[in-house]
């Protein structure tokens, strides 16, 4: 059983913590010392997984642009070397690149560690672990933390360190795949494409991917790694970040804009008209591409996707929309399960921009997701078309809003589940409201034209004491109609924070 010190570091299938001082009330709990212990624990776990002594293991280590990255990377390397491992220092890298270090021919390391905390504030950091089977699962992380807590690893002699600029290897592999798929050495010639890396690890995409493929990248911005994130949060879901890349596209008269999160496992885009391609729109775009390649294919998404997206995938594209749970690992694992059952499922993608393709190890890789879109852009140009035309039939809501309702009691999961259970009874008594028959998370409800004209979903947060409420309506004012109907129900729960409603 994990004690609180170690348990606090687990964030589902990752480890995350506070690595730097600077934010009041957030005490540092991911020090270089702790990172070194976690590296030793991963080494012990990997030794058992691979049935090899630690002295025969090869492990790659990389980090994104976070300020704490170099110090934590050094500690991780030292920890692995103390077990006798052969360590490959990859320096600045992306999360997808670190997985690929376990599978690209000529490398194929036994495991890898990425130091990142995605889009979280500058003071946070974390560890993601990979083998050639993919990212570790929640249970694996718990096992590693238990090893760390018990100190259940053995030091050994003979550890070594070499340096490999693996992001160069990864980028070259991506370029080769795009050239193979397009049949052209410079398939992006004639395109102006701007990138906003948000000072994360994605700046490589300009010089190492787009330019070799012939693209004009003038106007790209915030490519230099800077863990203080001086321009905006690197996050395709963030309004300020999307405004920045939209402005870059319009100011430079670009054909396409690309934005990555800090560690490049997520991506968003902007079309030549300055219209955002993120959330439901990027799901619609990759669905259009995938279903054209495989008629009738199933697309797995998270639970908060719109009704318009479902209609687009099923009625316009002829595919199947399998709306599942929040959490990128949940979505990916569900797609893998469906494929194993014989249901062809080429895409698993969240509205957050985590997109994983069957053809790419079901790795959530923002750069590969964008590469897939670029390949299609090149093909469309030869037909006199542009990428935005693929999703012009996507129906979008007039209004969409998320309310994050805090729970103020200790056993928040039981409290939240009780709210959701009682909401089902409340919904059953409402005119014009109907719970979705097939639903995998929380309670999703359809609201007819006279009672909100849209839908809502109430679910329990994966990690936090919250019940997020997502509402969409096809008419202006519809969200408020739904809120007004729900408020009397919510007011009976004294430990539920209703301030997001202005109540």
Structure, described:
The protein has 503 residues and is an alpha/beta fold. The protein is built from 14 helices and 22 strands. The strands form four sheets. Strands 1, 2, 3, 4, 5, 6, 7 and 8 form an eight-stranded mixed beta sheet that branches. A hairpin with a 2-residue loop joins β1 (10-11) and β2 (14-18). The two termini are 41 Å apart.
Termini gap: 41 Å
Counting DSSP E segments of at least 2 residues, the number of strands comes to 22
Oligomer: single chain
Radius of gyration: 23 Å
- Helical residue percent? 25-40%
Beta-strand content: 15-25%
Task: Catalogue the unreliable spans.
Answer: none
List the total number of helices.
14
SS-based class: alpha/beta
Query: What's the story with the biggest beta sheet?
Result: 8 strands, mixed
TL;DR of this structure?
The chain has helices at residues 4-7, 32-50, 69-81, 95-100, 138-150, 166-182, 204-210, 239-251, 280-293, 307-316, 328-340, 366-382, 412-428, 478-490, and strands at 10-11, 14-18, 58-63, 86-92, 111-115, 124-131, 134-135, 160-163, 193-196, 256-260, 267-271, 276-277, 298-301, 320-323, 347-349, 355-357, 363-364, 399-406, 433-435, 443-447, 454-458, 466-473.
Write the layout of secondary structure elements.
Blueprint: H1 4-7, E1 10-11, E2 14-18, H2 32-50, E3 58-63, H3 69-81, E4 86-92, H4 95-100, E5 111-115, E6 124-131, E7 134-135, H5 138-150, E8 160-163, H6 166-182, E9 193-196, H7 204-210, H8 239-251, E10 256-260, E11 267-271, E12 276-277, H9 280-293, E13 298-301, H10 307-316, E14 320-323, H11 328-340, E15 347-349, E16 355-357, E17 363-364, H12 366-382, E18 399-406, H13 412-428, E19 433-435, E20 443-447, E21 454-458, E22 466-473, H14 478-490
Helix pairs in contact: 2-3, 2-5, 6-7, 6-12
